[in-house]
Write a structure and sequence with these properties.
The protein has 7 helices and 20 strands. It has 365 residues and is mostly beta strands. The protein has 2 domains: 220 residues, Lipoprotein localisation LolA/LolB/LppX (outer membrane lipoprotein receptor (LolB), chain A, Clam), CATH 2.50.20.10; 119 residues, Glutaredoxin (3-Layer(aba) Sandwich), CATH 3.40.30. Strands 1, 2, 3, 4, 5, 6, 7, 8, 9, 10, 11, 12 and 13 form a 13-stranded mixed β-sheet that branches. Strands 18-17-16-19-20 form a 5-stranded mixed β-sheet, with no helix packed on it. A hairpin with a 2-residue loop joins β4 and β5. The longest helix is centred in the N-terminal third of the chain and has 13 residues. The termini are far apart. It is found in: Cell envelope. This is TlpA family protein disulfide reductase. It comes from Algoriphagus aestuariicola.
Length: 365
């Protein structure tokens, strides 16, 4: 692994005040990154899609530079094959080299950037979580690494125990993270695994601001300019016609006289899956006047059929729904629309909620 140092603080490794205990090493590693004006590294992520029993690999080269005006103190650029993500001076840019476009969004006053994959899984942010606890060490290729763990979630949702733990391995020789593992469990069984390696570190004491130089001839699109926000309660729900898994046409307006619950979901969404598991329970029945429909704006029928063989979707599946998702302003998953008997929107709910799941359930006799 290549490691580059341009920081005077490396003297800690050789001085009499060099960190000795696991807790001191963790604190020194955190300070090592936090005090740097520029932090660059290469990251390889392995992302499990448990419902499909598949793993995706994503490789990024990432450059963080301190900026007190930025959302969390840094501007950053991340590059992978054919695509770049940039967050500079409060503006997010997505540069797609395949279709020669630049998408922009003003996220200075938004929490959206908070959930960027580049931000969430990088050590600068991981170090800020507490409490990390030392749990042991290991040796990889004759190099000793110290392992620390942070429990992010330990709760019960409905009757499902959800447990999420994070592991970070630090090299005490250079005070740099080398490996990260995020493990999600449902009822004691692993539900999803995300792992990252970090290498080719470059730390600079000071950093020059990013210079925005976009490729010539690329079309710039302002994100949101062609997409509607979530529809409001009381408005007429846009009608649509989609095929179900059996090739039958399902038209929204055919359900007039009953309420329709549109469950906008995608495969790689943990809370979407939890909602489906609640709906699929033997003791869960929708209220008599509610017709539920699963609407997927993102995934192909090929993936959905594979998904359906592993995850129970207890009501009709409608795919190829990208345009429907746009019409309804869906920008996150799960999103639920409850449409009344006249075709007007009665309720809009984003994200998973125990209370909403119970609201739509048939009341006991």
């Amino acid at each position: 692994m290549k490691v580059f140092y341009i920081l005077g603080m490396v003297f800690l490794l050789f001085s009499c005040s060099a960190p000795q205990s696991p807790e001191e090493i963790f604190a020194a590693a955190r300070q090592n990154l936090k005090s740097s004006g520029q932090v660059q590294f290469r990251q390889e992520m392995v992302w499990e899609s448990p419902s499909l029993e598949e793993f995706d690999t994503i490789r990024y080269t990432i450059d963080f530079r301190k900026n007190p005006k930025a959302f969390f103190g840094y501007d950053f650029v991340g590059s992978r094959d054919g695509f770049e993500s940039r967050y500079v001076e409060g503006i997010e840019y997505g540069i797609d080299h395949q279709d020669s476009t630049v998408k922009t969004a003003d996220v200075l006053d938004s929490t959206r950037i908070q959930y960027s994959m580049l931000r969430t899984f990088n050590p600068l942010v991981l170090f800020e979580n507490d409490p990390w606890k030392y749990i042991g060490d290991t040796t990889i290729q004759q190099q000793k690494l110290l392992q620390y763990m942070w429990v992010e979630m330990d709760t019960v949702i409905m009757d499902k125990k959800v447990y999420l733990e994070n592991h970070l391995w630090i090299n005490p020789a250079n005070l740099l993270p080398e490996f990260y593992s995020r493990r999600l469990y449902h009822d004691g069984q692993r539900n999803q695994l995300i792992e990252s390696t970090y290498e080719d570190w470059v730390l600079e004491e000071k950093a020059e601001p990013f210079v925005l130089d976009f490729p010539k001839g690329y079309l710039t699109k302002v994100e949101g300019s062609t997409e509607s926000p979530l529809l409001k309660v009381g408005t007429q729900a846009p009608d649509f016609e989609l095929e179900d898994a059996n090739g039958n046409l399902v038209k929204l307006s055919d359900f007039r006289g009953k309420k329709v619950l549109l469950d906008f979901s995608i495969i790689n969404c943990g809370w979407c899956k939890i909602a489906l598991e609640q709906f699929a329970k033997e003791d869960y029945k929708f209220a008599d006047d509610i017709v539920p429909l699963y609407v997927n704006p993102e995934d192909s029928w090929e993936k959905l059929k594979k998904y359906q063989s592993r995850v129970t979707v207890p009501f009709p599946i409608l795919a190829d729904a990208k345009e429907v998702g746009k019409e309804y302003g869906v920008n996150g998953f799960p999103t639920f629309y409850l449409i009344d008997e006249t075709g007007k929107i009665e309720e809009v709910a984003q994200g998973y909620s125990d209370e909403k799941i119970l609201e739509w359930k048939r009341k006991s006799e």
